[in-house]
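**Sequence with structure:**
===
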Amino acid sequence: MDAAVQLRPENQVDALNSEMNAYKDIYEQYVTEASFLWILRSIAIEQPHYNRDDLYDLECRIDAQLDGLMTAVDDVWDICLEALEFEQPGEVFTATVVAFRSFEVEKIQIVVEAGLKNEHTVKAFVSALGWLPASLAHPWIKKFFTSKDLNHKYLALAACGVRRENPAEHLNRMLEREDCRENERLYARALRLIGEFRRQDLSQALSQAMASDNSEIKFWAIWSTILLGNRAAVKNLEPYVLKPGAHQYDAINIVFRVLSVEQARELISRLAEDKSQTRAVVKATGVLGDPHAVNWLISNMQDPELARICAEAMCFITGIDIEQYQLTDENPAGAVQQPDDDAANDDVSLDEDENLPWPDAEKVSRVWMNLGMNFIAGNRYFLGRAITPELLKEKIHSAFQRQRHAAAMELALSNTPTPLQNTRARSKG
């Protein structure tokens, strides 16, 4: 008998299947990891403890998983199809990148349909369009613009927003079409882009939209009007500031950067009349940047529900990072964490303050007694310094994510003709 063992045909098939199953496990892991890491990144871009370098590291990990998937697209695609059945955003992102990188129209059509399943999958699909290189994304963005399907037009607009690429005449034509204006999601995104790109040529379209009875349409029309330089329009956003709703914090984020300090204080006083709005008041003081409010913020650091957000607002004004200055405290007893371990609690959303440190109010107060003399009440500050375009550009590059978002809005509202920078975009390293 030969020393070499001859495999029978059926054994060869079994060996081949075994090898394929081994690789399938690896590819399934790539899909799972890429999807999970994208979810992690989608959370990280709004967190107070992530900066551009941290995001870049996370993005490199995502890219490593995606590159692994491209070594056997056909085998991987079957796994992607199985993952898409869950209608979850992470899986849609991963499958979309794989489909576009395959250059196969049928695969791309499948992920477009999957991306339109719900608002979360839409965001993931658009994020993938922002992730891809221009050579892969642009041809399809153009197809979406010329499609008769208004959902496709929305994807095109949203992709331009994420990529910060001016849609030019495509935007003009959409705003002229009645069917586009009757689609709330599409119309609102178009109006928002006018402000993001500082499209002065479309100011008349904003005037028309500001008269709308639709709260969503009206908000973005006013928001963009302010970004085009019409500061008088800020009065029209006051109802959004004073009433809890989907755009309250969006309104606060722009209104208190535009009003004079005196006007802003008056509006904050009106907001504070409703005791349930204290968090909104804290956010407004941080946006305004007036050191007059710092002692009030410190006094509220005794309240576990407000302590961390007050410390964050104080940092926005003074630049005092309580971790850097060693002004932190232990997690106070009885503080409610969200999400918690209660199986009966269906709310698994991340607490907005989750990654903010707990302040030691007494230590903070002592430091402020020493440093407060360097600040003038009634002046606006950003992270402890007078607001200048140079400072804002520096912070957009080097600060933490929430600070970068704030700096970008502040810069867009300055006299510089700068479009609103997308501080949530993929880092270039």
Q: What stands out?
A: The CA atoms of residues 23 and 31 lie 12 Å apart. Residues 1-5 have pLDDT under 50 and may be disordered. The longest strand covers residues 381-382.
